[in-house]
Amino acid sequence: MKHERRRSWIVGIIAILASIVIFLVPFAFIFLTASKTVKDAADLAFTLPTEWALFENISTVLQTNQFVVLRAFINSITLTVTSVIIMVVLAAMAGYILDRRKSRWNAIANFFVLAGLIVPPAVVPTIWVMQMLGLFKTMPGMILIEVTFGLSFCILLFKSFVSSIPRELDEAAIVDGAGPLRLFFSVILPLLKPVVVTVIVVQAVFVFNDFAGPLYFLPGNEGVTVQLTLYNFQSQTLNQWNLLFADILLITIPPLVMYMFFNRQIVAGMTSGAVKG
Amino acid sequence: MVSTLTPSGVQTASNQARPRRRRRSPYPLWFFAIPGLLFIVLFAIPTFASFYFSLTRWTLSTTEFIGLDNFILFFKEPTLVSGFTHTFIYAFLTSAAKVVLGMLLGVLLTSKIIGRGYLRSVVFFPVLVSTIGVGLTFKILLDPFNGLVNKTLAAVGITGPGWLTDPSLALYSVIGVDVWKGIGIATLIYIAGMVAIPQEYYEAAKVDGSTGRQMFFNITLPLLRPATTTVILLSLIGGLRSFDLIWAMTKGGPGFTSDVIASVIYKQYQAGFYGLSTAGNVVLFVVVAAIVVPMSIYFNRQEAPR
Lengths: 277, 306
Fold this sequence. Notes:
By secondary structure, chain A is an all-alpha fold. Chain A has helices spanning 2-34, 38-41, 54-100, 105-118, 123-132, 139-162, 167-175, 180-191, 193-209, 212-217, 226-236, 241-276. The two termini of chain A are 41 Å apart.
């Protein structure tokens, strides 16, 4: 027993040291460089700043180019919140019907769900369709794109969760005279709360971090999202590493906060959704 | 069996309660309507249209049918062909690394060691961080002269290579960073798989005098099959479509040495060759379908008997 405990300490300490070098140093580097002055940051060294300038850097970043980063944050948050809400409602309804009702549409729906998970979206034809509908380069269009591409994963999660809710509940509500909408929104949806939280957290992180989507479907300065500012920023402010890293730090904060509060749901969502594959 | 029995059971139950009142199902199919419409308009139509547009010279307003020219160009032009092979290298190496390292970390993080909770969080956190942010950070860390990695190597007397500037190395450096960022999901899936293995198996094996190694190869490894399947499929799907990280770190360079299909699609789109870009999309579609679909069928069949 004593031998085993000593081993647990030795292995643990080695693992912790390795994790610091491999995983924490890059994040520490982001933080330290973001806190430096331009001159200080120029040599890209992993040192403490000679002069702490984190807040100055962040406010400079936010003000650059007529507050482009600030506008990008507003855009990203609008995009994330709206698309996640729509996704949750639509996916919960679809997943629920997919589990409860056996019809010939199920096969088609299941096929669409799997296709949505596997098939890479055809970029230019999607732009073509969006242009015809007047949705290209618009925020509503981008929201619908995020919803469409995220639905598959959410429907799978909801479907498997709905199957664990006993049908007796539905029957009781039907006997009491609840219509389909009432049944879903006041009986089923409240019971889906755990999986709703999971879907919200996982999809919020995905949409917020999405780069290729806005790059293709929401180009231009008007609807710029945070991931793209990072990109523009790097090419414009060459050698202003402190500002680049202050921007990286800024866009890392929302997922970090999410992770701190919803650690368990994220982990549950990633694994359960994944295992269904 | 169960699924065919339950609906009729429900039917009779509700019929007894309210004879012949309610013929309509309480589960209306129009709940599918909006998701279905979105899927068809923004996903199915573009996918089908891509097959046609890949055969054209296309400017969004005019199309000119040119047959298979785009595909011929795609497989003749060396810079485009290399993107094709890099996609395979990228997908297979990241999947392999994620399986091996993910399993090792899974074993480590389910064993009794100190700081387990901390280690799990720290391994998983990069998954949640912006890919572009990670890419740009590592681009700086891997800088051949000023980067932290090469400076550290120089301190112990090794001259580090130009991780992202050496044409023969760039793709592999990006692959390394991809593994760094994505290993958390693989580890998590393996941890979930290991926790699900009943402890009795190990106790029984211990009573029979098995060593740790025997237990790993004869109990853990076979029972982790479903987890391995998931990790392989997920990282293949992700790896074949990978774009963000490559774009942030190398933009497919130096030259075209780290281009993949997804980055080729974007470059051709930017250059205004919409037909060629869409042909790239079709190629990617075929590649993903040709690899992932048979694999998932194969894995499913393997798992069925148990």
